[in-house]
Amino acid sequence: MSPHPQPSSSSPPSSSLTPRVGAWFVGARGSVATTATVGTLALRAGLGSPDGCVAELPEVAVARPPALGELITGGHELGHGSLAKRAEELAAGGVFPAHLARALSAELAEADGRIRPGAGPGGETQRAAARRIRDDIVAFRDRHGLDRVVVVDVSSTEPPAPDTAALRDLDQLERALDAGESPLSASSLYAYAAYRAGCPVVAFTPSPGPRPAALVQLAAREGLPWAGSDGKTGETLLKSALAPMFASRALTVRSWTSVNLLGGGDGRTLADPAAAESKLRTKGQGLEAILGHPVDGPMHIDYVADLGDWKTAWDHVSFEGFLGTRMQLQFTWSGCDSALAAPLVLDLVRLTARAQAAGETGPLAALGFFFKDPAGDDVAHDLGTQWRALTAWCATLGERA
């Protein structure tokens, strides 16, 4: 494949009213992508507030990310239906006010027209699928005269990727694709195509995505930034805030048991033990890094269909204080997964686009604040350290032209 094509001469002229940054969702009619799309449209129409959008805080806004009103959405989707119908379902479940789905029905229908069929199993080689995905993204960028497009994976969680030679080396990967082989998981196929389109990637799920070494090499060769993995929206967010408290007060955590109840598509996907393996790995790895020692305690993810798009987590922490006194902390977190995730997705699109504009390449370690499994070297897991790294990076970006 050639380097990413330049916008065609037929692209519409830019203006202050033309959206300049595209958010291209893999899983574009899923709960998170739909909520993010409704959010961009509602904020542009003055129908909501950007609560939960970290990029609106002064310490992050100093980076001068693109405005929320400058975003336009599109994406790939394997499922059927429409954005408007999905928005009605989410509103009925309390994810956002019902009047938004009604007021934005025309805009949602227009956004639905920017969604293309995804790459499913069979029917075409991975080489052909990658070309088609790339062409869809480039056409989206050209048609809307966008300066850049950020591809965000918010699709269903995949099992961990096998460690094959094709995934370790870019040249071997290219030979495998040319030979008609299928070495890439679906998430990595989309990341590959995004890089060939000249677009940065955000891995909001624990799926392999841009992580295989061959794709890290491709991002470097194309001079592109990427961010991931697995958005930190609920229980793990609390862990990354609470665990440093125990460490800094010299309190020994003996066990930390977690029970997670999920509904919706994510919960249904994670009912598969192979898919759950990826999620459990990213959810569990930060605790030991923060506390500095192994911690006993099982972690469960259970699917409860009745919960819909909501999730509940119950944690039991056993810790030891002065002279070996045993104590406990218990907490319950109940939240709406899509309403927690969607503003972070929009933050990541805006900040990744700003990083690309500033010439940054490779894994964006400073965005570790948003992830359970942060990409980059020597990344921290405790929330305070991550916040300081994020705001320092944003201040540096703000100083660049």
Automatic annotation (TrEMBL):
Superkingdom of source: Bacteria
Taxonomic lineage: Bacteria, Bacillati, Actinomycetota, Actinomycetes, Kitasatosporales
Cited PANTHER family: MYO-INOSITOL-1 PHOSPHATE SYNTHASE
UniProt record similarity statement: Belongs to the myo-inositol 1-phosphate synthase family.
SUPFAM superfamilies given in the database record: Glyceraldehyde-3-phosphate dehydrogenase-like, C-terminal domain, NAD(P)-binding Rossmann-fold domains
Name this polypeptide is given: Myo-inositol-1-phosphate synthase
InterPro entries reported in the protein's UniProt record: Myo-inos-1-P_Synthase, Myo-inos-1-P_Synthase_GAPDH, NAD(P)-bd_dom_sf
Domain annotation Myo-inositol-1-phosphate synthase GAPDH-like: ranges: 234-338
GO molecular function: inositol-3-phosphate synthase activity
Chain segments annotated as coiled-coil in the UniProt record: none
